[in-house]
Amino acid sequence: MEQEMERGQRCHGEEGEGGDEKWVHDSSVDYKGRIPLRASTGVWKAAFFIITIELSERMSYFGLSTDLINYMSIVLHQDLKTAARNVNYWTGVTTVMPLLGGFLADAYTGRFYTVLLSSLVYVMGLILLTMSQFIPRLKPCTNMKHCGQPKKIHEVVFYLGLYCVSLGTGGHKPCLESFGADQFDNNHPVERKKKMSYFNWWNFALCCGLLAGVTVIVYVDLSVGWGVSYLILTLCMAFTILTFYAGKAFYRYQLPEGSPLIPMLQVLVAAIAKRNLPHPSNPDSLYEVPKSLKSKGKLLCHTNKLRFLDKAAIIEDMEGLQAGMKIQSPWRLVTVTKIEELKLVLNMIPIWLTTLTFGLCVAQASTFFIKQGTTMNRKIITGVTIPSGSIYSLSAVGMIISVTIYERILVPLLRRATRTERGIKILQRIGFGMIFSVLSMTTAAMVERKRLRLAEREIAMNVLWLAPQYLILGFGDGFTLVGLQEYFYDQVPDSMRSLGIAFYLSVIGVGNFCSSFLITVVDHATEMSSGRSWFREDLNKSRLDNFYWLLAAMSALNLCVFVFLAKRYSYKSVEGMVVVVADCEENGGSCC
To answer: How confident is residue 269, by pLDDT bands cut at 50, 70 and 90?
Structure first.
């Protein structure tokens, strides 16, 4: 009875912890393992060091990936389909590896040391790529001007370097962003608002690194040589690793809590074991650890969805539990919070699936969009020819514009209109961005059709015709990708936040794999049905416009499904939080 009264009080307006306290009480520690002092740790002073290394890493990643399809076509002599598939495979592995890195960081190694070690692996990959261009025995050919077939040793070292970068990204990417978000105390009202801005400005810095990668680095690739650009990336990354380590005293550290999968298995086992018990009429009678006894993490409010799992918290021996005479097995009795954490993860699966089509559209920007640019007139003014990969920078420009407009104009207006801290719900932001993916693919299809018609008359279309599809896709990224980052960080259990960012990255990674699979299926289907594939070695004889129309149709149908799911989604409800993250009653849960 006392447990029910305590939980009822917590779930009806108890003020959150934090306020203007001198110390940070969010389970974090400083670099000496002590409770952090608010004034000297975290917030923007710590985030600056973290964002610096992110800017360098994004410059390296996009400097490599943007011109990778050209490298494979020009130096490795791969045809269009093979080069596109290899780029998609590498991008897919690079953005799926964070699932492993995020799990290890959350369970065992911690985010700081995972970032540090994985960054060193990343630099090793860049060193191998640099060596493959400068060491004579590792170069593609002895005479680069007359290079028919590259050396096998060069391909081995080149791919080894690329996949070392993938391995490094696996630990670096999910942990760095979540480590940056850890610098803001969610229980403190001022820092909580700063955290909402953090994801926007994080992506602003990301876009600056992207711009540098697809303009400066790609220009060096084609004007000076790939070896010089790889050397620049190696030196920049090494310098920012030192900068990141220099901020060690300013960081707040979340300690690893063991495998997050075990508590979820305990919920499933306990629910199955009690499957024949009647469901309690009052959810307050379900088992929960009193807040005064919970040293780490937050208690979650009960929700009415997936009620079968609630049976895992049914107390079978109330008298023995109250008297402390019998120790309950965690595989037989689990808390409401653990059940709600499993519900959060299960509720994410449909959302994750419906964002894959957006990832599939994003994959085209670094493959077919760039190959289109190679066939076009790239002279923007007399005497100035831009590399085909540099047009990718317009995607970053679009994202910077949309993030800035959202942060500086839309958020203040929406906060006043809705009277909530966030302005609009996270899934509303994601869905709005998905509209732009439909528009981008539609625009790309119309531009490609016009390019093909001009190519039939041997007229080269100007490369700036690609600007609309890149800008529109960038606008969508500013809403959907940033929204996905915030969603997967905020809505996962606290013990899975590195994995949460990895889930976001896997949208892009699996999207690239889906792109490769779709290319293969469409290639075979069109070859068998009409005898002419949509993807041919000569881009002027291909039908990328039809492929873009297919993607636009898929994106439109997927958006309808996403809206259906988003309207029925239950957001995380934390006990004792007075800020309204979402309308709890609307989403099937008790308000906290």
So the answer is: very high
Closest to 125 measured CA to CA, from 175, 159, 93, 96: 159
* Alpha-carbon span 70 to 390, nearest angstrom: 12
Provide the residue type at 523 as one letter. D
Mean pLDDT (the chain) is 84
Q: How would you label 220-235 residue by residue, b for 16+ Cβ within 10 Å and e otherwise?
A: bbbeeebbbbbbbbbe
Alpha helices in 299-408 (DSSP H): 318-323, 336-365, 368-374, 393-405
What amino acid occupies position 473?
A: L
CA 544, CA 531: separation in Å to the nearest integer?
A: 16
- Note the pLDDT of residue 403: 85
Judged by DSSP in three states, 480 sits in helix
CA distance linking residue 89 with residue 97, whole number of Å: 12
Radius of gyration over alpha carbons of the chain, in Å?
26
The rounded distance, in Å, linking the Cα atoms of 371 and 364 is 10
For helices 467-490 and 426-456, angle between their N-to-C axes, nearest 10 degrees: 160
Q: Where are the beta strands (DSSP E) in 224-375?
A: 253-254
Nearest CA to 55 out of 182, 183, 233 is that of 233
**Contacting residues for 512 by C-beta, under 8 A, at least 6 apart:** 88, 89, 91, 92, 95, 359, 360, 363
Q: Specify whether the CB–CB gap between 166 and 122 falls below 8 A.
A: no
Rounded distance between C-alpha atoms, residue 106 and residue 294, angstroms: 19
pLDDT at 142: 67
Residue with the larger pLDDT of the pair 128 and 412: 128
Question: What are the beta bridge partners of residue 303?
Answer: 589
- Structure tokens that stand for 548 in this block: 């873009």
What stretch of H or E contains 444? helix 426-456
Cα–Cα distance measured from residue 478 to residue 135, given in angstroms and rounded to the nearest whole number: 41
The alpha carbon of 70 is separated from its chain's Cα centroid by a whole number of angstroms, namely 26
CA 417/CA 489 separation, integer angstroms: 25
Nearest 10 degrees: Cα torsion 436, 442, 444, 445:
170
**Helix H or strand E encompassing 3:** helix 2-10
Distance CA 345, CA 493 (A): 8
Residue 259 reports pLDDT greater than 90: no
Q: What is the per-residue pLDDT for 296?
A: 60
CA 228 to chain centre: 30
> Is a pLDDT exceeding 70 seen at residue 582?
no
pLDDT, one tens digit per residue, over 451-461 is 999 988 888 88
Question: What one-letter code names the amino acid at 211?
Answer: L
Which residues lie below 8 Å from residue 213, measured CB to CB, with a gap of 6+?
Answer: 58, 59, 60, 61, 62, 63, 64, 66
